[in-house]
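ok here's the first one, seq then struct tokens
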Amino acid sequence: TPLEPELQFRLAELYMRRSKTDRFFEVHRESETVVHLAPRLVKEASSRANVEKAVSMYAAIQQKWVDFAQMDLVIFNHAFARQTLDQEKAAEALYQQLISKYANSPLVADAHLAIGEINFNRGQFQPALEHFNAVKRYPESRVYPYGLYKAAWTHYNMHNPEQGLRKLEEVVTYGKFVAQNKMD
């Protein structure tokens, strides 16, 4: 039915939420209190398995319902889930797909930031900087100030502290602008 992709998408989101709960139980497996309160849940907890289920659902939605109205969100969540599983190449390809196919999506800035982070963590600072700078094209995005901040640190890591300092000053200036205009 037309509702099926929406239901599949919601199921994938539930798997991602469950992975967070399972992560809590995994971290607290040695806690007597937690084990006492929920022994079966603690024993069966598998954050990774739930993220893998979500990845499977997102991939199926992308394959089966290519015209799904929220495909940009499906792709973004799929990329994020892959990134959670340390499948960075797959995640980066999905983020790039979002950027190229859904240029008007409000998630494009987030996708640029995510690709920038992946490259930054690899020590590939020039491509990271390109993506952090791309976030500047979306000043209304919630990730805008963080993109500026990460660009500053990227300049620092590229042995350009003067430019990094200027970027950090941009972050401060933006923060003051937000405070003065009582923006959220």
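and now the second one, same deal
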Amino acid sequence: MNLNELRDRAYNIACEHGFHDKEYADKHWLMLVITELSEAVEADKKDSYFDSENNDVDAFYRAVQRKGFSTAFGTYVKDTVSDEIADVVIRCLDFCGMKKFDLSETQEMIEDDKPDPCPDETDIMTEIMYNITSLLFNKTRKEELRVQDVIIQLFGLSEHLHIDLEWHIEQKMKYNSTREALHGKKY
């Protein structure tokens, strides 16, 4: 995994789909990160998890062969907790691409430090996502570092939840590249 390459891909896919045709303040982009965090909570409330340990990956690939990637993705992956966490990271990567933030140190921290997403000893998704959201509002840190903190924590959370986040990011980027402009939304 190379976060700078993923950043560039996420930004390019967003540009190709019209997300950067209009200029918006940074608050706009950061709010979109927060909405994705909220969608992860909604998926958890519905107990919607992609179970990579119980053959969901194999079933997904068989469905890709039978029905095509987009249909299989919609059936097996879309709107699960892991899909929404991947969306958060992709939104962060897109923002970092727009701002030209270097993610080399972020990648090192993910690979070396194995961040603990649950320092309060909580496994409650609402509390974890609240803590991650609060990182975006930490005015004592530069904006670049706040967004990188979110990425780092999401990789730690994914490891904690046994989610192959890199796989989910790859699948979601592939899916996003097939979608209509603005993914059929206003922005």
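notes on #2: The chain has nine helices and no strands. The CA atoms of residues 59 and 76 lie 8 Å apart.
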